[in-house]
């Protein structure tokens, strides 16, 4: 039904809540929906409502009524519908409403821009959020999607992410479905309206609306057979109105009623409707005509008869069953073999008519038989088309194609290889490995064996099974003759060996892989070889070589720019990293890894609040994509930050997450970072012996400095060793620091840390002075603060007045960084020093977690910009950060200030007198 026609019917029916089919008995639900519309209109922030219930229970009617209410309240409206056979079209379910409103929320050029980047889910959804945010800046929006369970995967992903991203904007999301789709991650808590069967009084009122006058008892008894379903009740009442209550109107099963109605149709119309039911709830006349083997112009009589029988209506573009229950009833009346044959014929006709695999494949999934070569090809094409944006669906399609291949067909291994790749991209690693092993058990030719092992290499890498990756790549290299596959296998072997002890041998393997890749002219092998060489160099602590390889890699493939940024952070090249991240912000690269790199940079710069916000954002983005590969590193960093701030409760929460993640995905890297975090917590609890043992356990697989995440914490590890009385461990750690400094002569942090560690291990006051001098030339304030604090304490013990400036420097750095625990420790020493000269130091007040004073400096900047009317995107541009990070800041601001919308935030900022301060601190 078109929006205009619906509005006319609504106006004719009277005020909201009065008798209209599907609305009788729904007054309470309408009242709650009306209240939500008004709350969003009045600036209370975003909201979600979901209407749940069985087919025919009245969800769509309530949705349309809410659309009408919202329009009357001045909302712009997007009203879309998800359809069963359209799950292969990325963003189709959302686009069906966004592009066709009056006016549309998105222009065709906006959508073309989105479609051009449909392979970058996070970027696409962020860009869509920016567009919706801009549209809602002066007008509230209602975005309604009917039948969400049928939504395509990209639309489902967007519906899971967007409400949280747009929490502060006046956007009401209204979704319908049979069951709760559980889409909502960190967004507003949905208002769930579960529609129950109508009570007898509502059914009686409904009968009065349709029949007029008093409702005979016989009719009331018949209506009991509807089970309180308003659509079934309306169908029964329509039959009674046409034929009287004495007609044996079936009430148990709608399919019987529809069969009754179909019996009066001409055979050609009946066939036309059956074809339409196969094509879906809505279909093009041209598609039905092709499947009927007739011209569209020759079906006018059939169309007219179906519309007259109240089975179809014409929305101007497509023919649509008046309710999907009617379509299901027609569809269910087809014999299973007939249904299957019609679906297969529909796929062939659609392909012959030039339609894409997106249109044909849903029919093939319901009809293809083993050995169907056309179906295998189309499924493979569709999987390749959607793998970047809907990897799970691509994996399902690729697996289905493999199931259709006869066991001894020559194409088995090619189709199987594509299935392994798709399953790996979808994160279904165990299933990918099992599929590969099943193919290998068929003893393929040697080159095919090597090719399968090459693609399984990516699977095994993600499974953290580097031992098996090494074993398999070695075996495959003994069999391969194809130079391209050889280069890829050698590169995989180099990557696996980057995790081993013999890094010199790993480097030789990586250099050989790069030479083979260049000789073969293979892009994939070159990327793998450069990646492996970069990983090997970083693990060996050769920062300059790591930057060289990762720079070459990111120039060759910009998706690896975060790896170059992290390598340069290890080199103390912070200025170049800032420029890289600023440049990367303009493209749809890997946002979670980019923000991880930004967080690592902020850690190095001593911007602890900003680093924590970056790590929260990176974890959220990984969670959105269901690929939490960096979760342990993120939570260890956040836990160490919490310890610096003195927030033991938060640190324990992070430690619990790390323990669970390591148990779920054990590997040596996760073990090392986890054990070190445990050591810091144990040391803070006073269990120094246990802490030292945990530090020792980090080294059981590799030296402490092998773990890149732990390098900035080496001095702290030395302190843990000394507090436990384990001088040998302290000296071993100091020797590792010295070796790292030798490998990196131009890196101030490496040189300064080595001097600091040696000073502690050997009680050498002169080395502390040297450490401070070196670190003053570097970009990292926290190592400088630590060295200055130790130097000041040593000078204080010696009675040297130079202790005061050293301790003051340390205190000021820690205080600016928000490292409250360390600042308090140094302040106590500083008070001892200044008491001798009659000076006193001011203490740090305890941090509050609520109100304006709880906001970090960056959060205040964001709050002021948003209060001044900036969108997330323009605020991000002003602050030179990611819109994702701005969203994280906003979520924290709203929580600390207990607000839900930008309107409320602007009032608070104005009250604080900060609205005019722009981006100032």
C-alpha Rg (nearest Å): 33 Å
Low-confidence stretches: 1-19, 247-254, 915-921
Give the N-terminus to C-terminus distance in angstroms.
54 Å
Q: Which bin fits the share of residues in helices?
A: 55-70%
The profile of the biggest β sheet is: 5 strands, parallel
What is the β-strand count?
8
Please state how the strands of the largest beta sheet are arranged side by side.
2-3-4-1-5
Quote the beta fraction.
under 5%
Decide which structural class fits the backbone: mainly alpha
Q: How would you sum up the global shape?
A: globular
Mean pLDDT: 87
Number of helices: 46
Question: What distinguishing features does this structure have?
Answer:
disordered C terminus; mainly alpha; 4% strand; disordered N terminus; 921 residues; three-stranded antiparallel beta sheet; five-stranded parallel beta sheet
In a few lines, what is going on in this structure?
This protein is mainly alpha-helical. The strands form two sheets. It has a five-stranded parallel beta sheet. Strands 6-8-7 form a three-stranded antiparallel beta sheet. Helix 8 (200-211) packs parallel to helix 10, helix 12 packs across helix 14 (300-308) and helix 29 (574-584) runs antiparallel to helix 30.
